[in-house]
């Protein structure tokens, strides 16, 4: 059990006038307890109240839960929601997380209780990484840098997008990564124009752009990085697009420091691309928060008027996707430090043509 994190959550419950919170998101439970379980269709939850009472609800089929978490263990023929109702019967304002399945929530909701979405309290805690989390994420990004180097070398071979992804899986395994943090995107030519391209059997052709968006998991924390290359030749407009995206990426990074309005970062990045005449081809937000999950709560967009905090880690990933010309995205992870910013990726970003 991570007592310091749980105590911070209890303080948030008090500050926001919640009597209890019921958490069913496996990653949020892992954040607070170090326990990770994939529950499938079975009920799995962490209950915490403002008095400091804690219970974990888990099926008997799951691994044993440590005793200081006061486990409520049930079988497939038991009714865990009824047990939970008995524990929370005195609560008036109950926080529910955004992941609780309706089949459990609807059975829970009765009486004169007030039910409120409570995930924001955990999301706020998870958005500020401690020193150990930062260390884990720096290591995951170091591995990702190394893996990108091997991917760049492999691009000189006549391999399909899927073959490149298969190669990366082997690289991650050899480097000691635990898994991919998301499904790798390798997009050649037309595939590079689609920000969330579904990798396929296409092979690259001269003059095409190549987008590689990849990340791995190490020590339970994710990395994420995108680099763009060109195959054998690059046109003048492709160079202009690439250099515009690079300028936008660097502008975004330069904005990062404590207490900056997040929407201002997005605005500054977007202005670089708009001023170059490619605003219509930048079709997504500037970035996302990341940690135990590749996409965590919080984004770098025009609608997020929260302010950056020391310990935030998020991506800066502008892109231009012009059909018939090229797709370019350059993505780095950045850490907000007391002095400003630390970029977690060190892989080069200058324009490269694969021969």
TrEMBL record:
Pfam families the record matches: Creatinase_N, Peptidase_M24
The Enzyme Commission number assigned here is: 3.4.13.9
User: Carries keyword Hydrolase?
Assistant: yes
Creatinase N-terminal domain span: 6-128
Q: Where in the numbering of this chain does the Peptidase M24 domain appear?
A: 136-338
Give the matching CDD domains. APP-like
What is the protein's given name?
Answer: Xaa-Pro dipeptidase
Please give the Gene3D superfamilies that the UniProt record associates with this protein. Creatinase/methionine aminopeptidase superfamily, Creatinase/prolidase N-terminal domain
Keywords for the protein's UniProt record, in alphabetical order:
Dipeptidase, Hydrolase, Protease
The UniProt entry, under InterPro entries, shows:
Creatin/AminoP/Spt16_N (IPR029149), Creatinase/aminopeptidase-like (IPR036005), Creatinase_N (IPR000587), Pept_M24 (IPR000994), Peptidase_M24B (IPR050659)
Species of provenance = Peptoniphilus koenoeneniae
From the UniProt record, which GO molecular function terms apply? Answer: proline dipeptidase activity
């Amino acid at each position: 059990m991570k007592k310091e994190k749980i105590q911070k959550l209890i303080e948030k419950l008090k500050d926001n006038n919640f009597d209890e919170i019921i958490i069913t998101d496996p990653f949020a439970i892992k954040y607070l307890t170090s326990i990770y379980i994939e529950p499938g269709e079975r009920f799995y939850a962490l209950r915490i109240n403002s008095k400091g009472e804690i219970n974990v609800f888990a099926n008997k089929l799951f691994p044993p839960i440590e005793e200081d978490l006061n486990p409520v263990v049930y079988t497939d023929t038991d009714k865990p929601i009824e047990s939970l109702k008995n524990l929370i019967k005195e609560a008036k304002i109950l926080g529910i997380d955004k992941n609780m399945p309706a089949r459990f929530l609807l059975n829970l909701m009765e009486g004169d209780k007030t039910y409120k979405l409570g995930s924001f309290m955990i999301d706020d805690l998870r958005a500020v990484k401690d020193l150990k989390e930062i260390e884990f994420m720096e290591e995951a990004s170091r591995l990702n840098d190394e893996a990108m180097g091997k991917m760049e070398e492999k691009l000189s071979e006549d391999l399909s997008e899927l073959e490149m992804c298969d190669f990366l899986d082997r690289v991650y395994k050899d480097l000691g990564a635990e898994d991919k943090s998301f499904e790798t995107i390798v997009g050649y030519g037309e595939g590079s124009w689609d920000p969330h391209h579904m990798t396929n059997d296409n092979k690259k052709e001269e003059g095409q752009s190549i987008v590689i968006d990849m990340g791995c998991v190490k020590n339970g924390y994710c990395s994420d990085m995108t680099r763009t290359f060109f195959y054998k030749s690059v046109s003048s407009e492709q160079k202009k697009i690439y250099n515009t995206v690079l300028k936008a990426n660097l502008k975004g990074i330069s904005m990062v420091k404590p207490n900056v309005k997040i929407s201002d970062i997005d605005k500054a990045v977007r202005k670089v691309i708009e001023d170059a005449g490619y605003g219509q081809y930048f079709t997504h937000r500037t970035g996302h928060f990341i940690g135990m999950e590749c996409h965590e709560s919080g984004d770098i967009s025009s609608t997020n008027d929260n302010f950056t905090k020391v310990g935030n880690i998020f991506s800066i990933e502008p892109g231009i996707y012009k059909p018939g010309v090229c797709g370019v995205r350059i993505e780095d992870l950045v850490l907000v430090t007391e002095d400003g910013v630390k970029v977690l990726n060190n892989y080069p970003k200058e324009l490269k043509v694969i021969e």
